[in-house]
Amino acid sequence: MRDISLCGSLTDEELAVLNRLGRPRQLARGETLAWAGSEALVCANLLSGVLKLSAMTADGREQIVGLLYPADFVGRPFAEEVEHSITALTDVELCVFPRKPFEAALENHVRMERLLLRRTLAALDEARARMLMLGRKTAEEKVASFLLDMAGHLGGQQKACEVTFDLPLTRSQIADVLGLTIETVSRQMTKLKRDGLIGLPSNRLVTIRNRNALRERAESA
Amino acid sequence: MRDISLCGSLTDEELAVLNRLGRPRQLARGETLAWAGSEALVCANLLSGVLKLSAMTADGREQIVGLLYPADFVGRPFAEEVEHSITALTDVELCVFPRKPFEAALENHVRMERLLLRRTLAALDEARARMLMLGRKTAEEKVASFLLDMAGHLGGQQKACEVTFDLPLTRSQIADVLGLTIETVSRQMTKLKRDGLIGLPSNRLVTIRNRNALRERAESA
DNA sequence: CGCATACTTGATTCGCTTCAAAACTCGTGG
DNA sequence: CCACGAGTTTTGAAGCGAATCAAGTATGCG
Question: A51, A95, A132, B195: which could join B55 in a potential S-S bond, CB 3.0 to 4.6 Å?
Fold first, then answer.
């Protein structure tokens, strides 16, 4: 756990503090770590797997407002109530900290606080980039951007420019990320496949066949 | 400038540091403090007026990704390049800090850094709430939410439940906040007026006539 | 007063959603 | 090994909400 997550670039003493605080925890695909509206009890580091952060309207429409990958920080220090539900999209390993003691540790360890500030600023930039996507992009642009994003996070390496990866999201969840319906996502993916930009060897697998063409379809972002 | 902005709850010594660093600056309505893609030279505190943060697609579609009000922090420490253009929606007064020295001051003054962390976390929550709005709300819900939001920020007080305020945004800018077109914004506002939920005494003035009914139209948020 | 800009309103179009059903995937048990 | 069934994905047809196109009407400034 040393290289990964908040812990990179901490001193030994700070690492010791975190280790004393943290408890390992697993979640199975589909399990929820925290429900929006409940008391905020924990923060965590994500060690492996993918988490979603989601918000819902009163009548049940869902929007995924963030995806978390290994080494990402999980949770929201300094808030008493959970704003966004946190749910596992794959089986997940976490290092969980009780929130209050974690906050105390932050106050006492400037480097940790500094690191968290940088990450939060980066997360804010990302959230705003996604606002542009949600507000101003077409369905095709959304799907193309999404696939490039996933490739960036999951595509181990590009052999001869082609990458294949395993989608951690169902079509329905992709729709909830992009602010679309499941049918529209499916149609756009089929179109990209028909046009030879991607391959869909199986339901959950995606191959990026022509990254540059895909970037053009994603416009802008 | 003491009560407002980052400076609240700083020590005298820290205030002195900031004052030595900061330079007052005015912007007229429409002027831009920083262009996306340019070198990030400054951070600032907003003293009066309203700023927009905006992003654009390659082909010129715009999305406003944030609005800043008096006492808000402006800019993005620790990034070399400006991610989002910063433009004045009204005449604006700022207290501007050169970025690098400001970053150095942050490192040396834990309380300032801590304060900035809290604000950044809050901004992230807000950005994510706006993602739900952009991705999953109808035009009517978007406009109703927007008006309630503005009332919260600008509506001095409610006399007998009615508040009137001066919109700092044109219809076109409202459209860019909500991910709609100018015509749709106009139509929805007219509808809300016809239904007696709001009044539009002049182009830029809005009166909230029935806050609860408006909240119902805004659904969820 | 006249011009430019902003806002409203109407008619039409289009992209995405909705509704409906077929095809596929995958785990289970015969 | 294959048949079965639940869940997921694809595909098709129809409808609707917001965009686009196009005037027309305020508003405000020189």
Answer: A132
CB-based burial, B173-200: b 16+ in 10 Å, e otherwise: bbbbbbbbeeebbbebbeebeeeebbee
Tokens 């207290």 belong to B95
Q: Are B98 and B41 in contact (CB under 8 A)?
A: yes
Neighbours of A62 (CB within 10 A): 19
Q: Do domains B5-134 and B137-218 have the same CATH topology?
A: no
Q: Answer yes or no: is A93 CB < 7 A from strand C.
A: no
CA geometry: angle B162, B163, B168, nearest 5 deg: 155
Q: Say yes or no for a CB contact (<8 Å) between A57 and B128.
A: no
The span from the CA of B57 to the CA of A92, in Å, is 35
A137 CA: nearest nucleotide by C1': C15
**Which residue approaches D18 most closely, CA to C1'?**
B184
Among A29, A28, A24, smallest CA distance to A44 is for A24
Which nucleotide's C1' is closest to A180 (Cα)?
A: C16
Instruction: Note whether A106 and A77 are within 8 A (CB).
Output: yes
**Contact between A197 and A210 (Cβ < 8 Å):** yes
Domain ranges for chain A: 5-134, 137-218
Task: Specify the higher pLDDT residue, B135 or A13.
Answer: B135
pTM score: 0.93
SS3 state of residue A81: strand
Residues A173 and A176: their CA atoms lie apart, in Å, by 5
Give residue-wise pLDDT tens across range B3-30: 555 555 666 666 677 778 899 999 999 9
Subunit contact B57:A134, Cβ cutoff 8 A: no
Query: What is the third-level CATH fold of A137-218?
Result: Arc Repressor Mutant, subunit A (1.10.10)
Helix (H) or strand (E) holding A141: helix A139-154
- How many whole angstroms separate alpha carbon A48 and alpha carbon A69? 7
Tens of pLDDT along A93-142? 999 999 999 999 999 999 999 999 999 999 999 999 999 999 999 999 99
